[in-house]
């Protein structure tokens, strides 16, 4: 049975969140196509992981028998997140843009799972090549050629971390202009927002089915 690791980080619940709407469509399509599969779900807004500490960090570079009690406790918690990542056959991450970058809760999770010599920069990494779908929602548009292109620190950052550092197979879905229905100054962009949202949902469903079929084969 294939395992999907689903990580959400939006502070908004359910349909109030663009990223959750799209990740939910992905997950439902995955479960419909692959009902015998396993889903590990982490809602970082409801249950945030702790920020990495000096003990958790330094323990990653020392043998277990040399750990202090504080290092051992911190690293045991860190291993919980790392082992979930290593068990995943596919990964789904909801990453809304907050103040031009990812939520701090998602950054905390990444800091916990990035371990040099194990999940990162390792030829023996168990996660190398694992497909990951990122739903990078944003209130405006930061696409190439737009006025705010230079403020895009979500997709660029996550591709650098997930693809270049963790060696994952990264696919990014971008529902944008999500503030259009709520900001009168963006009212004329509502049709573009609706089209972007529909495209993102369709893309998520297609990608989920593709993964489910691959792992069911």
TrEMBL record:
Entry's cofactor comment: Binds 1 FMN per subunit.
Catalytic activity: 2 a quinone + NADH + H(+) = 2 a 1,4-benzosemiquinone + NAD(+); N,N-dimethyl-1,4-phenylenediamine + anthranilate + 2 NAD(+) = 2-(4-dimethylaminophenyl)diazenylbenzoate + 2 NADH + 2 H(+)
Sites where the protein binds FMN: 10, 17-19, 97-100, 137-140
Keyword Flavoprotein: yes
Keywords linked to the UniProt accession: Flavoprotein, FMN, NAD, Oxidoreductase
Cofactor: FMN
InterPro entries: Flavodoxin_fold, Flavoprotein-like_sf, FMN-dep_NADH:Q_OxRdtase_AzoR1, NADH:quinone_OxRdtase_FMN_depd
Known EC number: 1.6.5.-, 1.7.1.17
Residue stretches making up the Flavodoxin-like fold domain: 3-179
Assembly behavior: Homodimer.
Recorded family membership: Belongs to the azoreductase type 1 family.
Function: Also exhibits azoreductase activity. Catalyzes the reductive cleavage of the azo bond in aromatic azo compounds to the corresponding amines. Quinone reductase that provides resistance to thiol-specific stress caused by electrophilic quinones.
Name by which UniProt lists this protein: FMN dependent NADH:quinone oxidoreductase
Lineage: Bacteria, Bacillati, Actinomycetota, Actinomycetes, Kitasatosporales
